[in-house]
Automatic annotation (TrEMBL), chain A:
Family matches, as PANTHER family: 2-OXOGLUTARATE OXIDOREDUCTASE SUBUNIT KORA (PTHR32154:SF20), PYRUVATE-FLAVODOXIN OXIDOREDUCTASE-RELATED (PTHR32154)
Keyword Magnesium found: no
Keywords: Oxidoreductase
GO biological process: response to oxidative stress
Organism the protein comes from: Sphaerisporangium melleum
Protein name per the record: Oxidoreductase
Domain named Pyruvate flavodoxin/ferredoxin oxidoreductase pyrimidine binding: residues: 258-471
Domain (Pyruvate/ketoisovalerate oxidoreductase catalytic) ranges: 20-207
Record lineage: Bacteria, Bacillati, Actinomycetota, Actinomycetes, Streptosporangiales
UniProtKB/TrEMBL annotation, chain B:
Molecular-function GO terms, alphabetical: magnesium ion binding; oxidoreductase activity, acting on the aldehyde or oxo group of donors, iron-sulfur protein as acceptor; thiamine pyrophosphate binding
UniProt KW Oxidoreductase keyword: yes
InterPro entries documented for this protein: 2-oxoacid:Fd_oxidoreductase, THDP-binding, TPP_enzyme_TPP-bd
Signal peptide residues on this chain, from the entry's feature table: none
Origin species: Sphaerisporangium melleum
Keyword Oxidoreductase annotated: yes
Name of protein: 2-oxoglutarate ferredoxin oxidoreductase subunit beta
Domain Thiamine pyrophosphate enzyme TPP-binding, first and last residues per copy: 76-223
């Protein structure tokens, strides 16, 4: 039977199943195949905070969305064209997101009376006509897998568990994905259990063959590779890119990396990743708590290391006092906050941009710190290097604000050459800097950067004491002098403010230069905002777009840019935190758009908001 | 990348050594003067901290280490001002966190001699978690816990080592909570080196510091320190010429544990107890074994100061070697380098599944 092949320019697939069904792995593999094939792509995993919520229930549903295309794309996509639902719960939790006419592949084996009841279906939606809007493909995935594995040396349970690979095979056929990568991957993953490897590979191939022969699928699809900028690419998630960025910062600064960290969702993967790369001289320290994590990082920084701590919002709250100590002692320190939904425990696996004001102001006293926020998963690499650059150059703690969406999302990344990355070399103080040629003044500042010298223990003649008590400018001796304190408060602020001269100006994307509306964003909303701007531009609407990477200090031209437009719109996944700062600082009537659902914005939603603001 | 230590200091520690083996030695003879900073000392006149400072300043030259490789890290409290008065590197940090900060420093710089100065409130209240984890982890640190059984800097509230019923500003009807015994706590946290000494006994204090410095791993030294403003005389019994020889049970490895009038022995059921010295034959007095891998005898000894100050063991309760965390951490780094080669950034970035465009 020859089947029809149809060309598409882009597809959004969502794999959904029980937490135990291996949906994240399935999504990862499909992503890897797609990356190999050369499409542009963007992914959005979505999983419960519970490790194993009760099987078959709505809270236990885990999903993975992948958007891939023959052109460059900016988001994991608003609504899936295809849903793979491994059980009734997965169907119920996701069907509402599907547009009319989308394909739904359901594993009918799991649509048992009991499983249907668990999620409140009286009858199977596959049979009762309630899925009429969609193209439903009823596939008994589990039993087909078990049948395909007859004669293999695996238990029935292990055979059943391979059903995700059957589904992956089917989807790989449907979208003409290359298969060698997955086969190699399975051989590697189960190298110690060759029987399981064989079974998974057989299930994967059976899924492919099923697509080829079944009548349920009459069409398969081709999505041509995207024309991306020439270069060598890999697919990368935000947390991995961030970890690599930290390693790169260590290499480029020639400072040994010391990570003090305490496990917390969604930041732990950075700790895991860095722990694997000790050959770079990296020391990873899993501390007894968040406070010890940052304390150890600061202690290591005093000793001349690139001190880093990684956490999420609740951890930043605990670290605040130590960050203040780093402000007072003017030591370099990187604080990575992978933001998640709050307050308190909130929703640990869901994303938010709600820690901006905490990063900015969440310490006692006047304690300014630079803030850097990556825009996309791969940008986490460069943002980490930039944050490290500021920390070591200005001898200051720096907050790096990633979030759950960036951390777990992935995209193709054009690999930089190590030699092209910024040189972050540091000059430690090695000799006295006092007028008399003998004394060392630990708080004598560089006139340009206002940074103080960094003399590490082991340097003869520069023995000195630092601490959290206010100190006299220059000597660093304890000082309660009112005028000295006022001066030190202002000097610390001026040092951070001065960074505005050392960062790129805010770039505005305004193709014709005559838009009246400026749409602003920061951090992970870059993709959805840029995609929304593209959409409205296609319908002829003029709109300018600018994105902040530095939140403190803001680029030097920020005020000028804001005032050049009639209207300024700022979507944020919080209740208007950056808007508050911009309004206070520039007296510009920023229009906020806020949704705090723990999910990224959708491009369509933002396109509608832009239209509304223009029409108002 | 081969320069995995900083600033040209090469430290490639492997195996267990003494606490000072990895620290560069001074080439010239040092004196007390070398360790005095130019800062005016600002404790209350008569405070026990002065005696400890003088003892430490005159002891440091004896170590013969390069002064620049010595770091004092402190938390918050009266005692935590200590680093300002020593001409070494110093870090006066925040309340309770000194062990955490010192851990990061010592773990990344095995070429440093790192000392933590803390008090009973700093170490046992707000910083209790860091203290116990430092002790179990066994980074090469020397923790000097100045125990004055009161909050001094905040002007006299009861502390986690104050006796029950303590009348203070915050407890006008007497404190209700049972104090920590720092020695028992440290032993319970698996500390390898645990000792107690007294601010006024310079000779003993210095002998304990000597052993603590030589111990590789975390050592905890409790120093009874008089706060003459808010808790004067707390340790007078141990200083009173008429009492001290009867009360003090000197712990010396290999020696019988006894005071002038009392002796320690194993009683019925193996219990360690204090009895009249005259009532036991010399041969039955318990001989102190500081190197016993089993901490239970040391723990039992640590309980002997209850009821308060009838008999108080002073000296090194426990001194047992086990691998230091920083040594093991360095070892993993060196193993990774020798097994896989030094890290190469381009190779790392290109390590996943890659594809070429154009
Ligand atoms: S308050 Fe007590 S401990 Fe503090 S300096 Fe005065 S005497 Fe010493």
């Amino acid at each position: 039977m020859t089947k029809q092949v149809q060309q598409l320019d882009r597809v959004i697939i969502r794999f959904a199943g029980d937490s135990g069904d291996g949906m994240q792995l399935t999504g990862d593999r499909f992503t890897a195949e797609t990356a190999q094939f050369g499409n542009d792509l963007s992914t959005l995993p979505n999983f419960p905070a519970e490790i194993r919520a009760p099987a078959g229930t709505l809270p236990g549903v885990s999903s993975f969305q992948l958007h891939f295309a023959d052109h460059d794309i900016l988001t994991p996509g608003d609504a899936p064209n295809v849903l793979v639902a491994m059980n009734p719960a997965a169907l119920k939790a996701n069907i509402g997101d599907l547009p009319r006419g989308a394909d739904v592949i359901v594993n009918t084996d799991e649509f048992t009376k009991r499983n249907l009841q668990k999620v409140g279906y009286a009858a199977s939606p596959v049979d009762d006509g309630s899925l009429g809007e969609w193209r439903v493909h009823a596939v008994p995935l589990t039993s087909l897998t078990v049948k395909a594995l007859e004669g293999f040396e695996v238990s029935k349970k292990d055979a059943e568990r391979s059903k995700n690979m059957f589904a992956l095979g089917l989807l790989s056929w449907l979208y003409h994905r290359p298969t060698e990568g997955t086969i190699k991957f399975l051989e590697r993953k189960f190298a110690k259990k060759p029987d399981i490897a064989k079974a998974n590979i057989a299930a994967f191939q059976a899924g492919w063959n099923y697509g080829e022969t079944t009548e349920s699928f009459s069409v398969s699809y081709e999505i041509k590779p995207a024309t991306l900028a020439p270069g060598l690419y890999r697919n990368i998630s935000g947390n991995q890119a961030l970890a690599y960025g930290l390693i790169a910062a260590s290499v480029r600064s020639r400072l040994p990396l010391f990570l003090g960290s305490y496990p917390i969702t969604p930041a732990s993967d950075i700790l895991h990743e860095l722990s694997k790369h000790k050959r770079f001289g990296i020391r990873t320290f899993q501390a007894e708590d968040e406070i010890a994590g940052v304390g150890a990082a600061l202690g290591a920084a005093f000793g001349g290391a690139l001190g880093v701590t990684t956490t999420s919002g609740p951890g930043v709250a605990l670290k605040a006092e130590t960050v203040g100590l780093a402000v007072a002692t003017e030591l370099p320190l990187l604080v990575v906050d992978v933001q998640r939904a709050g307050p308190s425990t909130g929703m640990p696996t869901k994303t938010e941009q709600t820690d901006l004001l905490m990063a900015m102001y969440g310490r006692n006293g006047e304690s300014p710190v630079p803030i850097v926020a990556p825009a996309t998963p791969s940008d986490c690499f460069h943002a980490a290097i930039e944050a490290a650059r500021l920390a070591v150059k200005y001898r200051t703690p720096v907050m790096l604000l990633s979030d759950g969406y960036l951390a777990n999302g992935s995209e193709p990344w054009r690999l930089p050459d190590a030699d092209d990355l910024p040189d972050l070399s540091v000059e430690f103080a090695v000799e006295p800097n006092g007028e008399d040629g003998e004394t060392y003044l630990p708080f004598k500042r560089d006139p340009q950067t206002l940074a103080r010298p960094w003399a590490v223990p082991g340097t003869p003649g520069l023995e000195h004491r630092i601490g959290g008590i206010e100190k006299a400018d220059g000597t660093g001796n304890i000082s309660y002098d009112p005028n000295n304190h006022d001066m030190m408060v202002r000097l610390r602020q001026a040092k951070i403010d001065g960074i505005a001269q050392d960062i790129p100006p805010l770039e505005v994307d305004d193709p014709d230069g005559d838009a009246r509306l400026l749409v602003l964003g920061w951090g992970s909303t870059y993709g959805p905002i840029a995609a929304a701007v593209r959409r409205v531009r296609r319908s002829g609407v003029k709109v300018a777009h600018a994105h902040f990477r530095h939140l403190n200090p803001l680029p030097a031209n920020t005020g000028e840019v804001l005032r050049a437009y009639d209207k300024v719109l700022l979507p944020e996944i919080n209740l208007g935190q950056l808007a508050l700062l911009l309004r206070a600082r520039f007296l510009v009537d920023v229009i906020s758009y806020n949704r705090v659902r723990g999910l990224p914005f959708k491009a369509e939603e933002l396109a509608g908001v832009i239209q509304d603001v223009i029409e108002q | 990348m081969s320069d995995i230590t900083t600033n040209g200091h090469i430290a490639h520690p492997v195996g267990v050594g003494t606490g000072l083996a990895l620290i560069p030695r001074a080439t010239e003879k040092q004196s007390l003067k070398d360790f005095k900073s130019d800062q005016e000392v600002r404790w209350c006149p008569g405070c026990g901290d002065y005696a400890i400072l003088a003892a430490v300043q005159s002891f440091l030259p004896e170590l013969g280490l390069k002064r620049e490789n010595i770091v004092f890290v402190s938390g918050i409290g009266c005692s935590s001002r200590f680093p300002y008065y020593l001409n070494t590197y110093g870090f006066h940090s925040i309340h309770g966190r000194a062990p955490a900060i010192a851990t990061g420093l010592a773990a990344s710089r095995p070429d440093l001699s790192v000392w933590v100065i803390t008090g009973d409130g700093d170490a046992l209240s707000i910083g209790g978690n860091h203290l116990i984890h430092a002790l179990r982890r066994n980074v090469n640190l020397n923790i000097l816990l100045f125990n004055n059984r009161i909050y001094g800097l905040t002007k006299g509230q009861y502390s986690p080592t104050s006796e029950v019923g303590k009348i203070t500003k915050s407890t006008p009807m007497g404190s209700l909570d049972k104090p920590f015994n720092p020695i028992s706590l440290a032993l319970g946290a698996e500390a390898g080196f645990v000792a107690r000494t007294l601010d006024s006994d310079r000779k003993h204090l210095q002998s304990v510091l000597r052993e603590a410095a030589a111990h590789r791993g975390t050592s905890l030294v409790e120093i009874y320190q008089n706060c003459n403003i808010f808790n004067d005389g707390a340790f007078d019994a141990l200083k009173d010429p008429g009492l001290r020889d009867d009360i003090t049970l000197r712990l010396e490895h290999g020696q019988p544990i006894a005071s002038a009038s009392k002796a320690v022995r194993r009683g019925a059921g193996g219990r360690i107890e204090v009895v009249d010295r005259a009532s036991v034959p010399e041969g039955e007095i318990l001989v102190h074994d500081a190197h016993d891998p089993d901490p239970s005898a040391a723990f039992a000894l640590s309980r002997l100061d209850e009821p308060a100050f009838e008999h108080v063991p002073i000296g090194i309760f426990r001194s047992v070697d086990r691998p230091a965390y920083d040594t093991l951490m360095s070892k993993q780094v060196h193993e990774a380098v020798s097994d896989q080669g030094a890290g190469d950034l381009d190779q790392l970035l290109r390590g996943g599944d890659t594809w070429r465009v154009g």
